[in-house]
Specification:
Radius of gyration: 27 Å
Number of domains: 2
Distance between the termini: 34 Å
CATH topology of the largest domain: Adenine-n6-DNA-methyltransferase TaqI, Chain A, domain 2
CATH superfamily of the largest domain: DNA methylase specificity domains
Mean pLDDT: 86
Number of strands: 10
Shape: elongated
CATH architecture of the largest domain: Alpha-Beta Complex
Number of helices: 9
Structural class: alpha+beta
Order of helices and strands: HHHEHEEEEEEEEHHHEHH
Strand order of the largest sheet: 2-9-6-7
Strand content: 5-15%
Helix content: 40-55%
Length: about 300
């Protein structure tokens, strides 16, 4: 039937073709038996899928909680007195409970914005995902190709560069690159100071309190503008443990997150296979490839 449709934007079949389609029609008793069988079997599969979907949601929450706990090193002692520039109410309560020996710096003090253009087009086109990963643009599919005239304006990134999409920062579009490449000129690219471990910074700026803080920086509640302005980011407070602790925190989060990601991948693969089995089961039952009479009786 698919081969008989026409039209690129809205594929459709002609009425003459539809009228000529032959439909296999078993007896009413067999139809009833097939329907009962499929209702029962697909309900079981749907239940398994729902259970795995809940597991995936729980694992995502566990991963988020892992990052939030790890990057703040919360201390149960007396809250610290903070001297910050500007208001940062989403992160201030957590910063006040960081260990006393941790420093706190402004974003501007530890991150330097850089503008290196891909003028010779030597770097591959990259995109920043909401997961914080910087990946090849051609691996995503379905993306509109950029205008050729804009390509030399693309910004070069290097391993350990912080990449920010200010329009979608509230959706998690921030992360430290692990590869060389070139990203949209609408992005912002920063060099990370030597006093900051890139992976620690990656997890910190993607933690839930910081995502909430970006939301407070936007005017999205009163306008359609979701862009986070750079002056707001410049005053964003960054907690800084000693380098040894930054490394320890980053390694611990990466190791534990990898285990959770593996479990998520397994559950999502199970869901995918279950959906394929559900579809195949329906096809086999309604085309007579399996005899359901004994299973219904």
């Amino acid at each position: 039937m698919v081969s008989s449709v026409f039209g690129a934007k809205m594929p459709r079949a002609s009425w003459d073709f539809i009228r000529g389609v032959e439909i296999w029609l078993p007896s009413v008793a067999e139809q009833k038996g097939i329907a009962e069988y499929l209702d029962r079997e697909t309900a079981q599969i749907d239940t398994l899928i729902e259970e795995q979907q809940r597991l995936v949601e729980m694992l995502h929450e566990r991963r988020k909680s892992l990052v939030d706990r790890g990057v703040f090193g919360l201390d149960s002692g007396k809250p610290r007195e903070l001297r910050l520039i500007g208001r940062h109410r989403a992160v201030e309560p957590l910063l006040a409970n960081t260990p006393a020996h941790w420093g706190i710096q402004r974003f501007l003090a530890v991150l330097k914005r850089v503008v290196e253009r891909n003028s010779d087009l030597s770097e591959p086109m990259m995109s920043l995902k909401s997961t914080g990963e910087i990946v090849r643009r051609d691996s995503l599919g379905g993306r509109q190709e950029p205008d050729e005239g804009s390509l030399p304006k693309y910004l070069v990134t290097h391993p350990d560069s912080l990449v920010v999409n200010p329009m979608w920062l509230i959706g998690g579009a921030i992360g430290v690159s692990q590869v060389d490449g070139a990203v949209s000129p609408d992005y912002r690219v920063f060099d990370v100071a030597d006093a900051v471990h890139p992976r620690y910074l990656h997890h910190l700026l993607r933690s839930s309190p910081y995502i909430d803080q970006y939301m407070l920086y936007t005017r999205a509640q009163t306008t359609f503008d979701r862009r986070v302005q750079q002056p707001e980011l410049n005053n964003l407070p960054i907690p800084l443990p000693p380098m040894e602790e930054q490394i320890e925190i980053a390694v611990s989060i990466d190791e534990q997150a990898a285990k959770i990601d593996s479990l998520i991948a397994e559950a999502e693969r199970f869901i995918e296979l279950s959906r394929e089995r559900r579809s195949a089961l329906i096809t086999a039952a309604v085309t007579g490839q399996i005899d359901v009479r004994e299973q219904v009786a």
